[in-house]
Amino acid sequence: MTDRPRWQELFPEGPPRRICIVMLSAIGDAVHVLPVANALKRAWPESHITWVIQPVPHRLVEGHEAIDEYLIFRRRRGMDGWKGFRDLARQYPDEPYDLLLGLQVYFKAGLLTAIAPARVKLGFDRRRARDMNWLFTNERVAFRGQRHVQEQYFEFLQHLGIDPFPAVWNIPISEEEREAQSSFFSSLERPACAVVVGTSKTAKNWTPEGYARVLEALESEHGLQPVLVGGPSPVEREIADRTLALTGATSVIDTLGDDLRRLVWTLDGSALVISPDTGPLHIARALETPVVGLFGYTNPKRTGPWQRDQDLVVDGYATHRGEDYAITPEYRDGMSRVTVEGVLEKVAAARTKYGW
Fold first, then answer.
1. Would you give the DSSP letter of residue 189?
2. Could you read off the pLDDT of 87-116 as tens digits, one per residue?
3. CB atoms within 10 A of CB 72
4. Among 6, 68, 161, 295, whose Cα sits 20 to 30 Å from the Cα of 81?
5. What is the pLDDT of residue 325?
6. What sign for the dihedral angle of Cα 339, 259, 24, 112?
7. pTM
8. Which residues have CB under 8 Å from 56's CB, separation 6+?
């Protein structure tokens, strides 16, 4: 037996100098990658870290202090799908990476891992690596039971012998964005509550009727100015329009649109966020903005705000109040168990806990 950390066994000549992270899509997952990148750079400050990523999450993390280079994978559809992989392969360097972290388990990420030049390709164990992704790696993180997604990413660090703590995100916000943020929030008469009204997955979404009542209470009972936030998808736009048609709240600001950077600084400057399980919830957590999470489809113990504001989760995933369910990736049809009363109870709890 040896007490040497695994990375010293893999790299006896010294710490890996060239590191590649493969995580393509999903805003929430990109947020979870940031403490991993920060810990790698903290442990090995001389390392050069490259991130293979898709355009939308790239807008979230561009300019991050721990990332030295981004390789953008532009997905193409239909018969031209292979060209995206070809174009990315051309961006890979001739000299192999010392270490690649395959943090995403879908097939397209597996292919990019397979074609990447790297000495050590670290991925999930066979049990968790979907789409046969375990075939594309030569070093695997052992299964330790179901855990929060953030902690599953930390397993990569722990496998190597790197301490993931303190967990630091440091989502970049530029000086120009700070000026826009200051201008926006100074125009409001009350603290803002950012309300995320939709996700890309219908089963995660709450009802316009519920949001309409909550907006009224935010305005009349809690002294907050509701700000609708989110992306440009037709589903989100439909929920927002229906909510606005149904609510009696008069001070709602609608900021939905294709501006992820504005979303970031809006969440950062808000007193409170209300959100289902989607990217903005995890951005808010990383920015340490209090967040009331609406859960019924996904397990909040696995995908809720990590180590913060679990007491503010409206738990429709539980089939009954106080259910002691396990951490699993299984889905439930529980958004109907999220009630207006339950949401406002958590808003009141957030006000007591944080004030505004």
1. S
2. 999 999 999 999 999 998 888 888 999 999
3. 15
4. 68
5. 97
6. positive
7. 0.95
8. 25, 27, 260
Encoding tokens for residue 239? 């929920």
Three-class SS of residue 190? coil
For residue 308, how far is the Cα from the chain centroid? 14
- DSSP H or E segment with residue 66: none
> How many CA within 13 A on the CB side of residue 75?
12
Q: How far apart are CA 214 and CA 228, in angstroms?
A: 12
Q: Are 13 and 19 in contact (CB under 8 A)?
A: no
Q: Which two tokens stand for residue 74?
A: 């532009």
Strand pairing of 118-124 and 225-229? unpaired
For residues 208 and 202, the answer to whether their CB atoms sit within 8 Å is no
pLDDT(79) > 70: no
Half-sphere exposure in the Cβ direction for 121 (13 Å, CA):
20
d(CA 329, CA 343): 24
CA dihedral 341, 227, 195, 36 (to 10 degrees): -140
Could you tell me whether strands 97-102 and 18-22 are parallel, antiparallel, or unpaired per DSSP bridges? parallel
Cα of first residue to Cα of last residue in the chain, in angstroms, is: 55
Report the alpha-carbon distance of residue 286 to residue 308 in Å, rounded.
10
The Cα 212–Cα 113 span in angstroms is 45
* DSSP string across 314-331: EE-SSSSTT---------
Which residue type occupies 48?
A: H
Residues 6+ apart with CB under 8 A from 89: 115
Beta strands (DSSP E) in the chain are 18-22, 48-53, 69-72, 97-102, 118-124, 139-141, 192-196, 225-229, 253-254, 272-276, 291-295, 314-315
Task: Output the CA–CA distances (angstroms, integers) from residue 92 to 50, 88, 103, 196, in the order listed.
Answer: 10, 7, 18, 37
- 226-271 residue pLDDT tens: 999 999 999 999 999 999 999 999 999 999 999 999 999 999 999 9
CA nearest to 135, candidates 109, 156, 114, 104: 114
Q: Token pair for residue 258?
A: 């294709």
- Tokens, residue 344: 């406002």
